[in-house]
Structure formats: C-alpha cells, structure tokens
What we know:
- The complex is a heterodimer of chains A (253) and B (284).
- Chain A is α/β, with parallel strands linked by helices and 253 residues long.
- Chain A contains eight helices and nine strands.
- Chain A is globular and about 50 Å long.
- With 284 residues, chain B is mainly alpha-helical.
- Chain B has one domain: ABC transporter involved in vitamin B12 uptake, BtuC.
- Chain B has 13 helices and no strands.
- In chain B, helix 2 (9-34) packs parallel to helix 7 (136-155), helix 2 crosses helix 11 and helix 3 (38-58) packs across helix 4 (67-88).
- The chains are: A alpha/beta (253), B mainly alpha (284).
- The A-B interface holds A 49, 52, 54, 70, 73-74, 76, 78, 80, 84-86, 89-92, 95-96, 98-100, 102-103, 105, 107-108, 110-111, 135, 137, 151, 155 and B 34, 36, 155-156, 158-159, 161-162, 164-175, 216, 219-222, 225.
Amino acid sequence: MTNEVIRLENVWLYYDGKPALEGINLSLYRDDFLGIIGPNGGGKTTLLRALLGLAKPSSGRITILGEAPDKGRRHVGYLPQRSLFDTDFPASVMEVVLLGRLGHTALFHRYSSADRNAAIEALKRVGMLEHKDQQIRKLSGGQQQRVFVARALASDPKILLLDEPMANVDTPMQAGFYELLESLKRKMTIVMVSHDIGVVSAYVDKIACLNRRLYYHGTKSLTQHDLEEAYQCPVDLIAHGMPHRVFEEHKDQ
Amino acid sequence: MIDALMQYEFMRNALWAGLLAAVACGIIGTYVVVKRMTFISGGVSHASFGGIGLGYYLSHYISWMTPVIGALIFTIASALGIGMVVRRSRLTEDTAIGIMWSIGMAIGIIFIGITPGYIISDLFGYLFGNILIVPTSDIIMMIILDMIIISVVVLLYKEFFALSFDQEFSTAIGIPTERLYLILLGLIALTVVLLIRVVGIILVIALLTIPSATARQYTHSMKNMMWLSILVGMASVIGGLRLSYELDIASGATIILFSGALFMVSTIFTRLRHRSRAETTPAE
C-alpha cells in the first residue's frame, strides 16, 4: 500500500466537443504540495472539477484515495475560483464556514455541536475566529478568501484543492495568505492552480504546467521546452521577484 | 374596514387569503431575491395561465377540475420543465423561460376562448387577481400549500442556503444540488398558485420580490429576512386592502402599489441612515 492519494490514468475530457484534457497521467502522494500553472483556458479548473467528480472524463480513470471522485470527494476541501460568489449575500462568516460541513451532515438534520466545533477550529486555523459573527460581505477580499479556506478546511480534508487562491487577495494581504498556505503544508495534500507563475513557484514543492496536456516531472522544475509547448509561445522566464528557481539551467545540446 | 370585516365574509376571506399569501411569498421571495430567480418566477407564473385556461375549459366536463388545479399542474410542470431542460440541453435558462412563458399564455388564451359561455371578467380575475371573491375552499387550499412550503423549507433550510450561496461548491461537496434546485422551483410554483388569487398572474412577481427586497435592507441573515418579508407582505396586504376598500379601486393592484411605496420609503430611509452613520463614524 503506497501513500498515493490522487491518481489519474490517461484521462481525456471533452468539453463541448473539444478536448479540455488530453491524456493526463498524474500521481500525487501524501502531503505533496503541487502547483499547476498554465494559460487561461488550459484546463486548470476543469482538472480540479474532474478531481471533484463535477466533470466526467470521457476516458481514463481518476481515483481519490482509491475511490471514484464522487465518493472520494468527502476527503477533499475545495476553494473555488471566486467569480461564483455573490458578495451581497446575507450570510455570517460562521454560516459560510458551516457549509463546509454539509457533506458530512445528514439531510434534514441541523448542524451538530461537532459541526460547530469543526467550523470554529477551521476559523482559528485561518485566523478569522474573531470575525465569526460578522457579515461576509463586510470583509475585505483577502479576509473573505480566508473564510473560504476555512470552509474548505471545516470538513477536515486529506486533500485541499485551491483554484486561483490569490485572485481576489489585495497585494498587502498576500504575504499573510502565503503564511497561511505555508502552515497547511505537509498537513494534507495540496493542489494549487494559478495562471501566475511567480505565485505558484514561490511556495509549492512540485510544479506542473497544464495546457490540455500536463507537463510534470514530479519535481519543482519545468524545462523551457515544457513551458513553451504548454503556452505555445516563448515564455518570459523572468517572474516578479521569484525567490526560487523554477527552471533548471539550460545547457546547449 | 373593521366594520366590513365583521360584516362580510368576502372581506374576511380576502384578508385571510392575503395573509396566507404573504407567508409563502416572504419565505420563497427571500430565495427568489438572493438567488436572483425573478425571471424564472415570472415565467412560471405566466405559464400557469395555460393551466388556468385548461382548468376553466375542463371544469365544464370534469367535476373536480378547477382553474386553480389546472394552474397548479401547469406551474409545477413548467417549473420542473425549465429546470430540467436547462440542465440537460444546450438551451440557456432565459430562452427556456421565454418559451414556457409565451406558450403557457397562448394555451390559456386558446382554451378560455373555446370554453362555452366564457365571461371576460373571469379572464381578468386570473390575470389581475380578485381577492374579493376568494371562496373558503381556496383558503383551505392556501393553508395546505403554506404548510407544504414551510415544512420543506424547515427540513431543507441548510441545503437551500448552500444552494443559494454557492451552487458549485455545494455540488463539489456532494450535496444533490440539481434535485434541490428542482424542489425549490416546485416551491416557487406552489407560491405562484397561492398568489394568483390575490394579485393575479401578471403581478405575482411583485409580491415575490418587493417584500423580500424591502426586508433585505434591514437584515444580514436569511432567516430574519424571511420573517421580516412575511411581516412586510402582511403589512402590504392589510394596507392595500384597506386603501382599495376606502377608495373603491382594484385590490390586487393597490396591494402591490402599497408594497412598492413601502419599498421606496424604506430605500430612502436606509440611504439617509447610512449617510448619517457615515458622517458620525468617519473611518471604519
């Protein structure tokens, strides 16, 4: 028995008759922190949706902790891309975080005290406990994003999927948000998707590039060739103040 | 109006009908407003006209058939129809709604036209409502529909909350959002039937949106929003009925204008309140 938590075997997925994912193979192990970069429309969100069982592959197989995605997703915490959220919605922070427990609560039942405790624990982890009775729409973009991470953590997941987590976090809040990600590292398997190479490369352990095909070597490096093939054009390797090197030194062949 | 209430059964029934309708539209209107389902509610209510026409026509041949039963069948069928067509085909929701909306109306017009001995005032009653001729049997039906709506919302409160807040996330954690959405559409259909008697098909949207939109200005919790919209709806019914009685004008329309006036006054009031608060506390 290995520690494999996510496995994709030759996954093809068509969306409106066009291929969105082409022959994806991927194995992730316990406490991996994978960053996936790639151009917009390259299938990053589709890949996360497939892992959650929201999009069905036309061929190939996905297993989450040895189960099909729609079963395995009870171990998965999910931070969707933010455009879906209506910020004017009348809800308190606590009500939002409790939603993360719904997959574990029986239909027709009220939230139990265990649910409430888990929500409070999750709020503590993201440092938002003091705001628990506040209106979600009164919070800043960065604070709201923390609440949504808490919602993903409320189910005590073994896997965390983050879709463009920085999209609505204003620059001064970003450092704090990275600290939060840092604190979750090696406590669970994390897959983070972003179109921003700099953001991803600074914090993840392993990096992949996705543009319908997945370029991944199980390491924290991609070759220039991978990137150019994924982005279909020469890629500017100078990322903004990147503390780590994403690309291996290239030697002339 | 108090005298009239004591004296005439029709006034008592009108008041009961209005209050019972306010309960349903306070609860369901809250979902319509926060989940932005106004257009689909309009589609369902107009499509119900087909059921009214069919019921009106068949009531001459089948003893248990009434226009309201026809409307009940048509609203539920059109609500679920729109919900399922959108999920299973490439039709967008607003197109599906537009199709149902107009086909329902057309069916209604045809059937009412071919019904022997049809009276034009009946047609007007369904289109614009006639709360003053609500029979006791309709009051009983309204009580039953209210009880169904309340029990379903109590049982599925957190699931509906999740569905309205973030459908994608809810599906991702394994909530049967598709079925829940259809159930919610079914409840909208029941509410539409409840409201037809009071304000008529064309004005149903008003009572599904105005009280909840007013309530939303005062609360940040969905539960409180429901309670408050029920109260606002009831105030609109009582105020509108009274005004229509005093001035001898159409009751359904007066109820709507009364709730519209409440909304506008409340909007101005909240604006002023926010402004004065912003002046006293300069920085947050």
